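Async update (no meeting this week)

Hi team, since we skipped the sync, here's where things stand on the single-chain job. The sequence we agreed to prioritize is pasted below, unchanged from the tracker. I ran it this morning and attached the output directly underneath so nobody has to dig for it. Comments welcome in thread, and please keep replies under the output.
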Amino acid sequence: MVRFKNRYVLCEVLSDDPRCRQCIEERAVGLAVRDAIGRVHGDYGLACCSVSFTVKYLNAYTGMVLLRCRKDSYRLLCSALPFVRHLESRAQRYPCALNTLHVGGTIRTCQKFLIQYNRRQLLMLLQNCTNEEERQCIQKSLLSCSLTEEQSQSGDEEDDDGTE
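Output:
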């Protein structure tokens, strides 16, 4: 049996409209990305990327999206992401952009990167605090940005079955 290697692309949805983040859905992101791939790379690029393309994770609150595609076609996917200009959800069209943050071989590496990225963002917020209450709230959030031992042990068990 052949194992297909995948790449996971971590993206951030950037939008001026705050309603955009609250209304996005996995289906809408997937359709917008497929449309962009079709426009940029044509039928060939769309066929290459569609084989195992899926939206693995979407956090509408933070605007983080995790996309999966085959290893041999992730460059086609990454080159088409800047051409996503809007997301359609519930018969509304929201202007937005997708910013690629990280490309990893596993979901776990993308999670680790996301924790470090959020930690850096919180440190930048900490520098811009105006009062002590905000400072304490951000420090509390900063200290809670870590993977616990339970999660790392359960993640190691999943990797032991030979599906790294």
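Quick observations from my side:
Residues 107-149 form one domain.
The two ends are 15 Å apart (CA to CA).
Reply here if anything looks off.
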